[in-house]
Structures are given as structure tokens and as C-alpha cells.
Amino acid sequence: MAEPDASSEPVPSVPPGAAATWRQVSWLQQAAQSVRGGLQVLDVITEAVAPAIASHSVRVLRYAHALACSEMAQERLQVSRSPAAFASYLDDGTLLTACLLHDAGATAVGASWQRFEVQGADRAAAFARAHGYSEDQVRHIWEAVALHTSPHIAERIHPLARWVRGGVLADFGTDLIPPDLRRRTEAEVPRLDVERTLSGIVVEQALRDERRAPSGSWPADLLAAHRASADADARLSAF
After folding, report:
1. Could you report the per-residue pLDDT of 24-42, keeping only the tens digit for each?
2. First to last CA, the chain
3. Domain positions in the chain
């Protein structure tokens, strides 16, 4: 691997060409071309999720890769921090697949009664299985996606889940990555107001079927914030 519901769900307004911008990033193309199913997973997120969510997923991959490199370097493994060397480690494709599909449930495609994290995990696992990943790899991908909003659990279950959650937290502002990496990544892959887009879709799913926001979950927190105020952006307080 190289470096890194329903049809009326809200569709974000994005600049012309934004949907394709992230696909042109050289390190992402290198990553996708170096692992099985890599190019196909780019097609999946292009078609299935909003441009803001696709771009977020690409940034999560970049940050998860950086966190993995840092962690492995601390364990004295010989891992390069260069994007060009992304293909030389973690080359089984699980990191790319889990990161890029971690929000695959935040979509109108394949509507489900389950919370978006589980719907996304099911989609990611089905994709991985169809592309020849082992059952252990499929299970790790499923767990990493399903648990990416579950603090303290994702960090402990295995490295893949820890890196995916770390990448998500980093993209939403947690101080886990160097500021220069954040600046360079966001210059290549703009944010496109992902907080508003993602939270809007998750709340809309929950309003249609509250089983998608079980008590204690992040979707439930977003739904409660949405209902607590007439402000259209009230849900952002729970982001």
C-alpha cells in the first residue's frame, strides 16, 4: 500500500470539481495502485458518499499512516516516514480499506436500521471479502470501522482500529499529528465543511429511524443536540 437510506438525505453544496480533487493526489493514487482493491475502493467512496466525507476519509488515511509510522518507529521498526515509501509497509491494504470506508455508512446507499458505523463496517467487510482478503483481515477491518467512534475500545482492540480512530480524531482537530502535516494535507484535500455534512447525514438517518441512534452512541449525542435547539447547526455542539 502506498501513502496515503433515502434519496432525500441532505446533499452538501461543494465547489465545482471538488468531488474529483482528492482523487488527483499523487500519494493516494500510489497507495491505491499498490494494494488489492485500492482503485475500486476509490470508486466506492466517489459514488457512495458526499465529497466532503470522501475527502475526510482520504485525510484520515494520511493521518492514520503517520500515526502508524510514528508508533512503529518508536518500537524500533525500520519504517520510512516518506510518502514515497508507503508501499513498503502495511502493504496488505487493510489500512487503506478501513480508512477510506470508515464512513461508508453515512450515505443514502444501502439504507439500514443500524447505526452508520455498523452499516459502514458491513460494507467495508463485504468489500474486503470480495477482493480476497483473509477472514482475519476482514474481521480487523470490520472492527476498525465499527469502533471508530468508540473511545477507549478502538484504541485497545488492535493497531488497525487504533490507527483508524487516531486518524479520525486527528482530522477533527485532536493534537495527534504535526501541524505542518495538517496544513499540507488540507491544502491537497480541502475540508469542504465535513463536520456539518457528516453530522447532518447522521442526524437525518436517526430522525427517520431512531434505531440508528442507540443510547450512548455518537449518533444519539448528535440527535439529542439537534433536538435541544431550534438552531439548524445545534448538532455541531456534540461533534
Report:
1. 899 999 999 989 999 999 9
2. 31
3. 20-191, 193-239
